[in-house]
Structure formats: C-alpha cells, structure tokens
What does this fold into?
Amino acid sequence: MEMNNSARGGKIYLDYAATTPVDAEVLKTMLPYFSSEFGNASSLHSFGRNAADAVTAARESAACFFKCTSEEIIFTSGATESNNLAIKGVLRAYNKNKKNSGKKPHIITTVFEHSCVLKTCQKLEKEGSAEVTYLPVYSDGIIKVSDLEKAIKENTLLVTVMYVNNEIGTVQPIAQIGKVIKKHNSKLLDTKYQILFHTDATQAVAYFDINVKRLGVDLLSMSSHKIYGPKGVGMLLVKKGTKITQIQDGGAQEFALRAGTLNSTGIIGLGKAIEVLEKNKQKEIKKIKELRDYLIKKVLKEIPSVRLNGSRSKRSPNNANFSFSDVEGESLLLYLDAEGIAVSTGSACSSGSLSPSHVLLALGLKPEQAHGSLRVTLGKYTTKKELVIFVAKLKKVLEKLRKVSGELLKEYYSKKK
Ligand SMILES: Cc1ncc(COP(=O)(O)O)c(C=O)c1O
It folds into this structure.
C-alpha cells in the first residue's frame, strides 16, 4: 500500500525527521511476531528459537547494510539509548581500567548535537567524570575539522559528532574526521589513549554513505523509526575490540552489552526496514532531493523576508529549514496544523522548552530569527502536489500572522536589545 495523501485523511505530513510511518512490507513482516511467534529470543524451546532465528536474520541484514559483522550490532531501544550507551559505556570501560585511575578523560563533541548527546556530556562534565570540549558550528551549519584537530588532548578518549543535524539537516565531515583520528591514533605508542570515534547517524542512514569502514567510526548510533521501521528500536554498532561496558545491569543479551529481553518484533521490523531501504535508497534520494530543491527555490522566490538555515548544498536531501521574519514558529506550526499540514519548529513551545533552538542559536541566528523557524522534512511518500499545497497555505498563514503579530514582535525584540 502506498501511503498517499488520502491514507492520511487528506492531511499533508512534512515532518519525516521526527518520525516516519511504518512501511507496509515492514508491518507485514512484523505481524506474526506479535502473536503466533511471540517467543522470547533467549528461550531454548522452539518458540524462542523461532524468534531468535528471525532476530539473527535481521542482524545479518543490518550487518550487510552497514558493512560490519553481526557481532558488531547491538540492538537497543533507539538512538537515545544507543548514544547513552556509546558515551557512558566507553567512559565506564575507561574508569574500570585501574591504570586510568585519577586521570579524567576528555570528550570532544559539538554544540549542536541532539539533546541526548549534549545532556549526557553536560551531565558527565557536571559530575566531574569527564572534561568536555564543545566544538563550534559555523553559519553554514558545519563544524571545522581543523577545530577538532586543535581540540585533541593527551587524555582525549572519545570524539562524538553527529552525521546529519536533525534540525537543519547539515552534513558533517565524518569520513574526514575518521581519517584525522586514525592518523592521530597511529602515532600513539601507548594504546590506552587511543581515541574512539562515535557518530550519531540517526538522520543520515536513509540518505548518506553508511559504510562504517569508509567512515572510520568505532561506534555508530541509529534509530528504526526514522527509516520506516517501528518506534522503540535502534542499534549501536560497536567495532570489534572497542573498549566499552554495559551501562544497565541484568542479563547477558546483546553480547553482554545491553541487558534486557530483546524487542524481537521491533528488531525484525528494523531488519526489514533496512532491506527495503537498501533496495530503493538511490532512487529515493534522487526523488526527494529534487522535491526539496523545488521547495527551497519556491519558498525563497515567492515568500518575502525568509532565509534558509544551513548550507544549501551540504544538507540532507529531505531537509529544508527556514526562518521567517516577524512571525513565531509555533504560531506558524499551529496555523498550518489547522490547515492539515504537519511540520516542525525549533522554536519555544513545540520543543517543550522556553528558549529558541540551541542549533539555530549556535549558527549565529538572533533569537527572533530562531523563533521564526520552520523545519520541513520530506520523505518517500511526499509528492510535488503536496508541496504546491504547502507553499500556498504557508503564504496565506504567513500573511495573516504577519499582519496580526508582525508589528508587536518587532517592538518586543527591539525593546529586548
Ligand atoms: C540526530 C538524532 N539523534 C537521536 C535521536 C533520538 O532517537 P530516538 O527517538 O530513537 O531515541 C533523534 C530523534 O529525533 C535524532 O534526530
């Protein structure tokens, strides 16, 4: 079944970076594992073995896609858990090594990571368990490899840099960073300070090279629900030999790295989602990129006082992030929602916080520009017709909102200066 506009009750969904609908083939594959094949993959009887066999097949599909071995795949509950496991697990393994006692490890990350990475790093820093360097991001939404090289210290244990930013879709030079770290590590005689490289590839898997060998990463996080798989399941890829310890105690599942009964139904869905993605990836990238370019061109041409946030070329094929002047992003979002269109904003209420997006501020946007932002993300079911309707409704809503609140907002921000 194609997920078309009518399948969504006539509504237009343009928030594929938040989540994606489960692909029909994926759903079909998962269904028996909710009922007749309900066994616990750790059980030794036939019910368990059937579930375990299907999990093994999913693991093999994933290993083939990421170009790693099955043993390097750790199934988790999603990218939040994968990121926590990567950072805390590496730190825990470091602290368990008596040789390291009294030596505080150093982590390098960026100012515009997803909150699950940022908050983890901030917490470790606050607790006194790690020193953290937050690399700046420039107006194009991309970090500089030279900044990273300069930030490396003798006690640097981990570099964690996201592959594609979830708000502005900009692509970070992961393979280049991988080379820098490899070169640095090759010069070290004492292996205990080898730098490990982790990337949060959650928003990259569907659109970019994900071969872990070419990227030169030791750890990679991803999430199923961003690639038309079910929610609540993801993976952490852990290169063989990486010093990492489990962070939650319990059973010995997932090569003793992630305790807890396997979400076998979810894992089987994720395996199928990867197979479907692999089959259609290049075709979909081409189609979505064309639609995105059409959207960006049309919005910049037809709407006054708007800017595109982040590099125009080094961005995900499915992402367009705009800032509209004299308007609040959340008002825009709610008015568009009332028109049957779902988008996202990095501004206040929608993200559950009172401050504007840390990502947009990190790019150097003024708070009023960050507040007036809209993230439009496309997916495999997006059509040109939907984008035509979206732009027409956006124009209408913007005109209305700017008339009502434009002057008030101008006054408010000029007083704040
Ligand atoms: C870049 C990035 N990292 C991590 C996450 C968290 O993923 P999950 O929902 O699987 O926990 C997201 C989800 O939006 C994301 O976009």
